[in-house]
């Protein structure tokens, strides 16, 4: 027991009219929506790094948080794990996610870092045995330490490539041991600061080879989870190679890995790339790449990745609607890659951030599910493309040539009549559900 959350009761579903801060108003894990329990639809996960490792710094000031588990020893790491599992239990959250650097102290050598990781993984494994929380995904932090400042897989120094490969192996082993359902690669430093010193061709080939080795190792150890790449356009790199879903798809095709790897899409990263979250989800689904989501939000004025907890039901509903159109999550889930604001010092803040975020997501999901079930939007979409059901039109996509089409246009006097896209009607329909 850490006593860190002592003043906080276990959070339960109490319905929309309850008056306590410490209750879910919309997230009823056992409620069945579209044939599945809400817990199994949403698959919420807590992010170890933001919740337990982040000290509250910003570019103008250092740590604001004081946590009893801050420190570099294994004893601190275990205390941190104790607090984490206490919070998972209080929230009743089914999953968590972690990087190696969040859970273990860095050792004096690579071997010591791996030993530390193995020891804490055993400890976490024991905690998991006594609780129902499972691992959504594990990952390696290949961006914080100064050795990775010029990239991990894409570093000009082959020794860094080797160190990164060995690190990923240890993190895949850890994820496999804990029964993780996915393994994530986010390449924060896989990009460049200036083209003046960068060989784009070489770096892409290094990244392709690296990912191929990850896929080979997954099969070798019999890891049944999904390998996920998390796109982001920039920050910390000036230009990041896995810019968005479309770039990742091109990269996977180039190296023949499109059947092996899917994407973990983050709300804030989609916005930074100049897309909407739902666009990235819809595109991934259409390319057969949709895997999981990092749920957060950016400050829309600041233009960087502020990783705030989600607070907008209408925005999240758009995202969940696309997820439902993609048949929902399989191994993926909703990971709160979100951190407190630096003035939110208290244990209560950490709990309430998650309670609010889970309620926002649940509300958004239920609204999206009701609209999806109603079918009016999908019927309107299908009607818009109904002309393609005509066999004469279908042949245009199945082998007809330009000349044949041209003959048909002349013969039949084809003369298209513009039709309304009915956007406002559909927006009104949307708003009746959300
Ligand atoms: C940073 C990323 C990171 C990944 C995991 O912007 O979102 O937190 O999710 O390495
Ligand atoms: Ni993320
Ligand atoms: Ni992020």
From TrEMBL:
Binding site for Mg(2+) 2: 266, 269, 305, 307
The record's free-text note on cofactor binding: Binds 2 magnesium ions per subunit.
PROSITE patterns in alphabetical order: XYLOSE_ISOMERASE
Active-site residues (renumbered): 99, 102
E.C. number: 5.3.1.5
Family (UniProt): Belongs to the xylose isomerase family.
NCBIfam families xref list: PRK05474.1, xylose_isom_A
Protein name, per record: Xylose isomerase
Molecular function terms, GO-annotated: xylose isomerase activity
Sorted UniProt keywords: Carbohydrate metabolism, Cytoplasm, Isomerase, Magnesium, Metal-binding, Xylose metabolism
Entries under Gene3D superfamilies matching the protein: Divalent-metal-dependent TIM barrel enzymes
Subcellular location: Cytoplasm
Record keyword Kinase present: no
Subunit annotation: Homotetramer.
Binding-site positions, Mg(2+) 1: 230, 266, 294, 337
Organism whose genome encodes this protein: Defluviimonas salinarum
Cofactor(s) the record lists: Mg(2+)
Catalytic reactions on record: alpha-D-xylose = alpha-D-xylulofuranose
């Amino acid at each position: 027991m850490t006593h860190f959350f002592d003043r906080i009761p276990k959070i339960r579903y109490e319905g929309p009219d309850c008056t306590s801060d410490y209750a879910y108003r919309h997230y009823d894990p056992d409620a069945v929506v579209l044939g599945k329990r809400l817990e199994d639809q949403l698959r919420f996960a807590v992010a170890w790094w933001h919740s337990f490792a982040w000290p509250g710094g910003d570019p103008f000031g250092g740590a604001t948080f004081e946590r009893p588990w801050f420190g570099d020893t294994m004893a601190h790491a275990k205390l941190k794990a104790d607090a984490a599992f206490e919070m998972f239990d209080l929230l009743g959250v089914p999953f968590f996610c972690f990087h190696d650097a969040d859970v273990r102290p860095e050792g004096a050598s690579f071997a010591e870092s791996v030993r530390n990781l193995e020891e804490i993984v055993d400890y976490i494994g024991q905690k998991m045995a006594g609780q129902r929380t499972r691992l959504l995904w594990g990952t390696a932090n290949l961006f914080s330490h100064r050795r990775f400042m010029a990239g991990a897989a894409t570093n000009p120094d082959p020794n860094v490539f080797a160190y990164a490969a060995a690190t990923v192996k240890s993190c895949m082993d850890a994820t496999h041991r804990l029964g993780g359902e996915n393994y994530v690669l986010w390449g924060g430093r896989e990009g460049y600061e200036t083209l003046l010193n960068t060989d784009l061709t070489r770096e892409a080939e290094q990244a392709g080879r690296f990912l191929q080795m990850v896929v080979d190792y997954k099969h070798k150890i019999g890891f049944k989870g999904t390998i996920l790449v998390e796109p982001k356009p920039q920050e910390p790199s000036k230009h990041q190679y896995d810019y968005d879903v479309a770039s990742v798809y091109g990269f996977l095709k180039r190296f023949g890995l499109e059947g092996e790897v899917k994407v973990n899409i983050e709300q804030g990263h989609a916005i930074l790339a100049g897309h909407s979250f739902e666009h990235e989800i819809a595109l991934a689904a259409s390319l057969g790449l949709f895997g999981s989501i990092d749920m957060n939000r950016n400050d829309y004025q600041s233009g960087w990745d502020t990783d705030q907890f989600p607070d907008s039901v209408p925005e999240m509903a758009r995202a969940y609607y696309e997820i439902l159109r993609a048949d929902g999550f399989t191994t993926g889930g909703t990971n709160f890659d979100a951190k407190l604001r630096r003035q939110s010092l208290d244990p209560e803040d950490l709990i309430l951030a998650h309670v609010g975020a889970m309620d926002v997501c649940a509300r958004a999901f239920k609204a999206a599910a009701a609209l999806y079930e109603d079918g009016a939007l999908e019927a309107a979409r299908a009607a818009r493309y109904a002309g393609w059901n005509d066999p004469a039109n279908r042949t245009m996509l199945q082998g007809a040539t330009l000349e044949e089409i041209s003959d048909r246009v002349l013969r039949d006097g084809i003369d298209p009549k513009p039709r309304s896209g009915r956007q406002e009607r559909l927006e009104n329909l949307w708003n009746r559900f959300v």
